[in-house]
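Q: what does this look like with S-adenosylmethionine bound?
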Amino acid sequence: RHDPQGGAHFLEDESTKIFAQKVADHYSARSNQTLEEREASPIIHLKKLNNWIKSVLIQLYARRGDAVVDLACGKGGDLIKWDKAKIGYYVGIDIADGSIKDCRTRYNGDADHRQRRKKFTFPARLICGDCYEVRLDKVLADDAPFDICSCQFALHYSWSTEARARQALANVSALLRPGGIFIGTMPDANVIIKKLREAEGLTFGNSVYWVRFDEEFSDKKFKSSSPFGIKYTFHLEDAVDCPEWIVPFDVFRSLAEEYDFELVFAKNSHEFVHEYMKKPEFVELMRRLGALGDGNQDQSTLSADEWEAAYLYMSFVLRKRGQPDKS
Ligand code: SAM
């Protein structure tokens, strides 16, 4: 068959699509858990900690009436958090058709869900699509500009190729207004590479997660390799089992600058916890979520293995250059 782009490029495109499909299939197949199943999860406290981190980011940056675009929104686990921030409009996009269906059910008031409730106070648009392939400024031409873009636990799926990593940032940049905020949480490449180098082989982990790098990275140096397409397999008990890609933070930061972003902060999850647990309102939020307890010995908290898994992630805040329109 005729391949105008040349064989190698064609193969790269094909395998990129196959991996994107693998990721979509993995998340689509994960059905909604009941409250009992969720509470019995071996990583329940890690999930609660991650919810706390996302809530803190939202509370720090969302303003009443904001228009929000949530890239890789999943099953809509953050809808409640946005509702509490009293946003004005929400667009959620995810590649996994099953997740978007669950998100729609949750938005419409899921009778089985713990957050059984009246309808959300903001209008929402939920779309199934590949955020790192599609030109979202075209899809969302009538909805943009947005005040905030969030991409939680998902931006690393764009680093399979440079083209996708660029499309991800081009999309966020085109959707945000000047001065708009981009918040996200993703694997911390420094921690993952450090752990890989300390490991005997190409695999490391504990009772709740493991990471396995491909043979091609057996020298563990990455000096000559491109910063895109550094693939590993990630397994997190009761949550994730799919191909992921390293996002070297300094490359991410300079690429983001090309798309008009300036870094507000980037923090590993451990540092994030230490920093924001100094604030009484976030300690109270943590107590309500029940991830770390409030210092009482009998309070349930993360296991050591969950705390180590938390260390694999970092959060970032970027601001789109320019002044917001006063009108
Ligand atoms: N953001 C949600 C949250 O924090 O609860 C979901 C996080 S889940 C770990 C990762 C999500 O990324 C999945 O829902 C998956 O379908 C989505 N995803 C992966 N690749 C994507 C892509 N190319 N475009 C859109 N969504 C994608």
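Residues 1-8, 295-299 have pLDDT under 50 and may be disordered. The chain has twelve helices and eleven strands.
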